Amino acid sequence: MEFSIDVDVQRRIEEARELGAKEFRPAGLEADRNAAPLPVDHPFFERCIERGEGRTRWQGLNPPSARPAPTRTVVGTLLVMEELAYWDRGIINAIPGPGLPEQSVLSMGTDEQKEKYLGPFLEPDRPRWACFAMTEPGAGSDAAALTTNAKRDGDGWILNGAKCFIGSASRSDWLLVQATVDPSKGRGGQRAFFVERGTEGLGGFKIEKKMGLKSYESTSFTLDNVRVSAAHQLGAGGRNEKKAGFKTAMQTFNAGRPIIAAQAVGMARSVLDEAINFAKIHDLTKKDRVRDRIEGIARRVRKARMMSVRAAWLADQQRANIIEASMSKALGAQIAQESASFALELLGTMGGAGNHIIEKLYRDVKAMDIVEGTGQIQKMLIARSLVGLPR
Ligand SMILES: Cc1cc2nc3c(=O)[nH]c(=O)nc-3n(C[C@H](O)[C@H](O)[C@H](O)COP(=O)(O)OP(=O)(O)OC[C@H]3O[C@@H](n4cnc5c(N)ncnc54)[C@H](O)[C@@H]3O)c2cc1C
Prior knowledge:
By secondary structure, the chain is of the alpha+beta class. It has helices at residues 7-34, 43-50, 74-94, 102-108, 111-118, 246-281, 288-316, 322-347, 349-353, 357-370, 375-386, and strands at 129-133, 149-153, 156-167, 172-180, 190-196, 202-207, 218-228. Strands 2-3-7-6 form a four-stranded antiparallel sheet, with no helix packed on it. The structure holds flavin-adenine dinucleotide. Residues 100, 131-135, 140-141, 165-167, 213, 218, 367, 370-371, 374, 376-377, 380 line the site of flavin-adenine dinucleotide (FAD).
């Protein structure tokens, strides 16, 4: 494994540091203070578009030869994500763009679907969002248990159900909704459907209250006899029509795990720096118990970082990384939580006052253990893989 960071990645990390300090940290603190996601018309989002953020990775049906696809390593992306999360993890998710469902559309969508749903993200004229809606009040970790259903209606579908904790749902141009077309087939009966904003029957949007990561919305909504055409089924009419189901959704989560791990590492690094600052400002560095906490955080951060970089490095080598991806996700989130907890102890009574960044980080890191498969679920998947059972 190569430990040096190439010049291009180093430059991108430095840019991320500058952007994080200037834009991410203040925007994240503002949302946390207001206990509400940044509104759609917040100037932060306009500046994102001006900087060229919020775009799709898709190159268009006829990519101009002058715009070759950038060849970037997973390790490079992961290190940049770590740096951005250092400044504010919630803001990463608040940024406009095709987000979580983009990978599903890229891998399983037809050309028409890519054009229709990713096309507007090629050069967005305004901040645009999309979201992936899997979780339901009764189906989180056990995603195979979801009950939102799609029933045939002529050549289209009628969708009914309820979703919760869906990132950016109320501001999305379209929602990729996971539903079952045949409950008797379990996960094999699941398909994904594009539901466009404003479709009749899509509604009841309610932004959830969260303890942390308040800068982006996590939203519940309902589908009440929502009618969509056959062409709204992911992959419909294409060679992936039968393949675009539960496995596609899970692949999206698998690919994201080392990134979530790296973001947790970035947050733990932030905790470490803030803890050292606090100890220096309050003349605590001569106390053994204080240095013990700082050493504990630093050692954990390095361990988690090694694991996330290794999972990404294996992906770059086109080698299987499924166990490492789950390990890095479980470990990164656990370490971020332990680090924030250690650092909060240093603050003493100031920690309870709720106006120190360490207290915010303490609330933010919990979600890293929950999103895209909880820590317990990762451990269960690792154990099953180790003994040769299907995941
Ligand atoms: C900030 C945030 C953003 C999110 N964004 C999205 C999104 O954009 N799209 C989306 O679809 N979902 C999203 N989610 C939902 C997320 O994927 C679920 O919260 C997650 O899958 C856990 O499901 P649950 O909350 O229903 O918990 P449950 O599945 O009810 O689990 C509760 C507890 O039991 C444990 N547990 C469950 N099963 C087992 C088991 N077999 N063995 C051991 N322990 C177990 C879990 O680890 C957890 O600690 C988001 C959640 C949060 C907090």
